[in-house]
Amino acid sequence: MxxxxxxxxxxxxxxxGADRQFVPGKYNESRQALEAEGIKCFAQGxxxxxxxxxxxxxxxAIEDSVPEVLEAKRLGLEIIKRSELLAxxxxxxxxxxxxxxxxxxxxxxxxxxxxxxxxxxxxxxxGAGLTRLIQEGKIGNAAYDSGxxxxxxxxxxxxxxxxxxxxxxxxxxxxxxxxxxxxxIKIFGVFKAHSKWFIVNKGNSHAAALSAGxxxxxxxxxxxxxxxxxxxxxQLGADISFSIVGQPFxxxxxxxxxxxxxLAAVAVARKLGVTWEVCSTAxxxxxxxxxxxxxxxxxxxxxLIDDFAHNPVKCARSIExxxxxxxxxxxxxxxxxxGPTRFLRHDFVDELAKVIRPGDQIxxxxxxxxxxxxxxxxxxxxxxxxxxxxGVDAHFVSNRNDLVQQLRPHLSASTTLLLxxxxxxxxxxxxEQVWVELG
Length: 439
What we know:
single chain, alpha/beta, 22% strand
């Protein structure tokens, strides 16, 4: 929502908004950044909505009982979903839509970096803060410029991805997340049909089923000139390197999955006529995004990394990417939502049990509850018990504020401490807290 708000404001529209996180008298970094852009913010139920507005835009997380929704109905204002507004925006620009169950934010940021370096003056509506934009005092998940290309994240979690008709659609992967695989395959199939050009990561077996049949890792429908295949992959600490047709690439992001994200961005850029050299130079300058393998540093031999991973496959890939950092890894995870955790319980256990090495550990704190109606019949402790039955060194610490204290006997030099979780806006602050407590 904040990304669309910033984009529309920069495009010349009058925009304001309300959020339950905007508590009167309490500092909120996002609110400050939005108001610095001229976007007036209100606390939920504060009475900021009046009849001067034309439309009220809500996310799928907003219930009909929210005060602004009730007031919009009383005033007779049009109420639309976030995805509907984004679909309208897509129709006004030549759009590149990045889809998949993981890697969307990173690929969006990498592609934005390349197109900026290429002088194409792109716009972007993303789901995470780009470091290069955060350094300008912005939230970092949106930018508006005069070029013809707009890059967006296309979300499959609520099925809204089927509303977009992009010039170029990108499918990074298909793994069980918010929905079962057959439904996801169906949704991404519609996404493919709606895309003029379609680029697929054939390294993911489920995504490969929707490819155009090229023998390469990425392909474009009747567009073999963007088919690319990497060689000589290496990871050294937080950096990865590889080559494409002899052009060396260095990216400051760990893991093979980030090479795949980079390949997707390069495939799109090549379709737009960007040279291999510009792609390489741009990705070398890529500074990352907020809470995507964000390395805080090392204290007493312990390296702290914060990551947005939140579904089974994402968590497993995040752990694998961080294992080369040190001889031992301790991962902490905060699941979000009782329904999603219940739905993915066995998948979490299976994926985590595969990647936790002897000597590694996995810790969890209680499920994050964002409000609304939920049946609280599952606990993160249940996942820990399942993992312990599989022989995994797993631990439950209900209150995450007790994590560092309980971890101390388990910490030693040459250890990576990986924090994982999503949806909870205080997770970034929690990582800062852990960094301080590691002292």
